[in-house]
Design a protein that fits this description.
seven-stranded antiparallel β-sheet, Protein Transport Mog1p, Chain A, alpha+beta
C-alpha cells in the first residue's frame, strides 16, 4: 500500500522539484543609496575647503605679523573733568545743592565745591537812589562755586573770579527783574567797566522767563540771570574771560548748564 499523502506534503514536494536560477540573478547585491553617496561627497568637499582655508589664513596672518610690529597701547588719557581710574575714564557724580531757606536747588559738577568770598566784598554797591540798594543789609544770601582747588582759588573785589558761579539772593525791594537788570551793570555809573556793550535779553529756564544781561568787552563778558521769587530776587552770575585760564574741563557751556539746572522750590 502506498503511504498516505497529505496535501501539505504534496505542495512541499512540488516546490522542491522546481529548478532555481543562478545566485547572481536572484540574490540582491549590496548597493549604497544615492542620498548616502551625496552626503559623503559633500562632507569630503567641505573638509578639503576647510583645510585649504586654514592654510591660507595661517599664511596671511603670519605675513601680517611678520610685516607689522605689535602696537603698544598708549596709557589711557581722559578729557577733564573725567579722570583715569584702573585704566578707565571715570567721572564724579554731580552734586545737588539744596537751599530750602531761599527756595532754590542747583546741580554742580562733581569736582566743583563751594568757596567763601573774602570779607568786605559785598557785590555791586551803587549810589543811585532810584535803583535797588545793593548793599549788605539787602543781600540775604550769597554762595560761590568753583572748580578750582583751594591752592588755585583766590578772590578780590566784588566780582567772583572768572569761570566761577556766583548765586545771590536779595530783598527785591518791590522792583522787577528788568529793573534789577538795568541797575547793574548796564546803567550803573559807580562801576567802571571800561569800553563795554551791555545787551539785555530774556531766556526761558525750566519754564520760567528770566531777565538776562550780558556785558561784553574785548576779551571777557559777564552774564547775569535775574529771577523774581516773591519778595526776593535770585541772581546767577558768571564771568567768561580769555585772559584767565579756566579750570580743566570748564567751558562757558559748563556754566550755562549750571544755570539751566536751577530748580525753584
Amino acid at each position: 500500500m502506498f503511504p498516505e499523502l497529505s496535501i501539505e506534503r504534496v505542495f512541499q514536494r512540488e516546490l522542491d522539484s522546481l529548478p532555481l536560477p543562478s545566485e547572481e540573478i536572484w540574490v540582491p547585491a549590496r548597493r549604497t543609496g544615492p542620498s548616502a553617496i551625496l552626503a559623503v561627497s559633500v562632507a569630503c568637499a567641505a573638509l578639503v575647503v576647510a583645510v585649504v582655508a586654514a592654510g591660507v589664513i595661517r599664511e596671511v596672518s603670519g605675513a601680517a605679523m611678520a610685516s607689522t610690529p605689535p602696537s603698544v597701547r598708549p596709557s589711557s588719557s581722559c578729557e577733564p573733568p573725567a579722570f583715569s581710574a584702573n585704566g578707565r575714564c571715570a567721572m564724579l557724580l554731580p552734586n545737588g545743592i539744596r537751599n530750602p531757606a531761599f527756595g532754590y536747588n542747583l546741580t554742580i559738577p562733581g569736582n566743583w565745591r563751594e568757596v567763601r568770598m573774602p570779607a568786605g566784598t559785598d557785590p555791586f554797591v551803587i549810589g543811585r537812589p532810584s535803583g535797588p540798594s545793593l548793599t549788605a543789609p539787602f543781600l540775604l544770601d550769597r554762595r560761590v562755586f568753583t572748580a578750582r582747588s583751594p591752592q588755585e582759588w583766590s578772590a578780590a573785589g566784588v566780582l567772583a573770579p572768572a569761570w566761577d558761579m556766583d548765586v545771590q539772593v536779595w530783598d527785591r525791594q518791590a522792583r522787577t527783574a528788568i529793573e534789577w537788570a538795568r541797575a547793574f551793570p548796564c546803567n550803573d555809573p559807580s562801576v567802571s567797566l571800561g569800553e563795554t556793550n551791555c545787551v539785555p535779553s530774556e531766556e526761558v529756564v525750566r519754564g520760567t522767563t528770566v531777565a538776562v544781561t550780558t556785558v561784553y568787552s574785548f576779551r571777557w563778558h559777564i552774564t547775569s540771570y535775574y529771577i523774581e521769587r516773591g519778595d526776593r530776587m535770585l541772581i546767577l552770575r558768571y564771568m567768561y574771560s580769555e585772559m584767565v585760564q579756566p579750570p580743566a574741563g570748564v567751558t562757558e557751556e559748563t556754566l550755562k548748564e549750571i544755570v539751566r539746572s536751577i530748580g525753584l522750590v
